[in-house]
Amino acid sequence: MSKRIKIKEIGAYFLANSIGAITPFVLIPILTESVTPSEYGQLAIFQSLIFLYTALSGMNSNGYLLRGNYGSSDEKKSEIIASILQLLIVAFLFLCLTSWAVKELFAQPSLKYSWLYGCLVVSVFNFLIQMRLVQWQYTGNVGCYFVLQVALSLVNLFTSILLIKIFDTSADGRVLAMVISYVLFGGGAFFLVYKQYLKLSVLSKINKSEIIKVLKFGVPLMPHVIGIFIFTTVDKIILGEYVGYSTLGVFFLAYQISSLYRLIFDAMNKVYTPYLYSVLSSPTAPKKLALVRVSYMLLILISLFGFVGVWGAENLLIYFVDEKFYEASIYIPLLIASQCFGGAYLLFTGYLFYYGKTWLISKVTLFVGLLNIVLVIFTIPYYGAFGVAWVFLISKIIQFALVCYLAKREAKLSWDKNNYV
Questions:
Q1: How far apart are CA 75 and CA 83, in angstroms?
Q2: Residues in CB range of 170: below 8 A, 6 or more apart
Q3: Which is it for the CA torsion 392, 395, 401, 407, positive or negative?
Q4: At what angle do helices 170-197 and 3-34 cross, to 10 degrees?
Q5: Residue range(s) defining the domain that contains residue 210
Q6: What are the pLDDT digits (tens) for 107-153?
Q7: How far apart are CA 317 and CA 32, in angstroms?
Q8: Is the dihedral of CA 132, 90, 95, 60 positive or negative?
Q9: What does the pLDDT look like over 41-70, one tens digit per residue?
Q10: Domain tally for the chain?
Q11: Cβ-Cβ contacts under 8 Å for 315 (sequence gap 6 or more)
Q12: pTM, whole model, 2 decimals?
């Protein structure tokens, strides 16, 4: 693949993910005007739960699907996809029963109980969308990837505006808009996957050996998912309960703005991962040297993004949010720095995924997530939301350092270019 084509791919992935990021950003002025900071805090919990339910319902199996594409026949791919969909159905039913069993916990103002089932629906259909995108990512079908991402974002955006502003549904309108958008496009994604890879006979057949392989890949990542959930949600729940959901709403706005960088780095990683896997599948000294150089360039690029973002986001905030959210500016620099370390972390997780060392990622994430909560509990009484931001940065630095060390150890890859001369 030529460098020109690779640059076009990066640009397409970047643009698709950036347009996806536009949805929450365009909605910021509308939401900050139409909802209270407390309701904004409740939406924070809702959006964080979507991540957890997507991972639990899909058993982290899209990562297995991407890896399974390499060297697999079409028949084998069909078996993998069928097994993943069967597990998705079982997991969804289990999560529905679990949600019903714990409904009494939602007597608190942290989240409306009806929203919980909205999370489940959005999560399942989001997983189906990601399954379709993974296949297009592997085949290099950037055009279809781009169209699906952009169409989903635009429908989500305009449905949200319609429900919030025209029908005056406040925060409930945002939740309903997400449910409508993801059901529509998730159903379409499933149809496309079924049409290309599946037959009813394959989907209805239980392939125990393939299901076991999917579980062996995904289950060790469960602590990783729980750790990320701790990172993205539990600290916010603690913050909301301790200092109030109004403060949480302001803090989450800052976190949401910083999350633009996570989307940018995810786009980078979507292009970088197939390249990384291709090098590791047939390693030679020239390929390893090129990989090291690319890694250094991406780390420098991530750092530059961080420096620009800290200045820009903090100064531009007052122009597109309601004044009751201006306080969010004090949290933005720390949160953007945290996202940059998260972007660097993504570059090195690919090594551990490729070598099947997912349990190492789980251990690191769970350890750092638990450390994050302990530090949050101790700092909130003294520093409030500002302490949570500092703890998030410290946790991200530790997470990056540990995964970087483990990746270097497992891949046996020297970061000194002179070793390849």
A1: 13
A2: 34, 35, 39, 164
A3: negative
A4: 150
A5: 3-420
A6: 455 567 788 889 999 999 999 998 898 888 777 788 888 899 999 99
A7: 12
A8: negative
A9: 888 888 888 888 888 887 778 777 766 555
A10: 1
A11: none
A12: 0.75
